[in-house]
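Hi D.,

Good news: the full-assembly prediction came through. Inputs first.
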Amino acid sequence: GIQVEQSPPDLILQEGANSTLRCNFSDSVNNLQWFHQNPWGQLINLFYIPSGTKQNGRLSATTVATERYSLLYISSSQTTDSGVYFCAGPLISNFGNEKLTFGTGTRLTIIP
Amino acid sequence: DSGVTQTPKHLITATGQRVTLRCSPRSGDLSVYWYQQSLDQGLQFLIQYYNGEERAKGNILERFSAQQFPDLHSELNLSSLELGDSALYFCASSRDRRNTEAFFGQGTRLTVV
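Then the structure:
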């Protein structure tokens, strides 16, 4: 099955810093999502980005499907950005359906 | 609010017991997925239903079972619980089986004592 690798595993930054999180896939993807899991455990949708670039406030994401990677950019970090960031891509099952396979996540800690 | 509702939010139960977790998908979504997240671990796919039928299975234990009802809500049944079953259980839903965005509920935090 498809493998999803995220880097770095941990990131500690000062408030106001910028960061780039990376997600690599072992195979091509056509359905990629980024999630933020906050300290209370909630999984929040950030981007649905099979290809191209999207922006939402201080966050943006780029997926280069042909090269099997996606990047999540966080600018001017705030303490509320702390948590674990997951990327997830599809795994084709025997039925031909897609289920999201999650990477191991990047734990981001923003220090005031 | 993702629109996916999971109940209960918290559950504490003893080893050997059986529990049922419930999930209501977003309005119009036909696919429901269940995931398990153990402490400080990633999300492990358990099972997927589409319009009432099981479509894909992950590493789901034989002690666990699930179903999706005609009104599209889903239940995950966990039996003969062990300490290691303590985890966050997430339900997600999506419009279709593929190429559509999935949204997650707030999760059920299960503690087995």
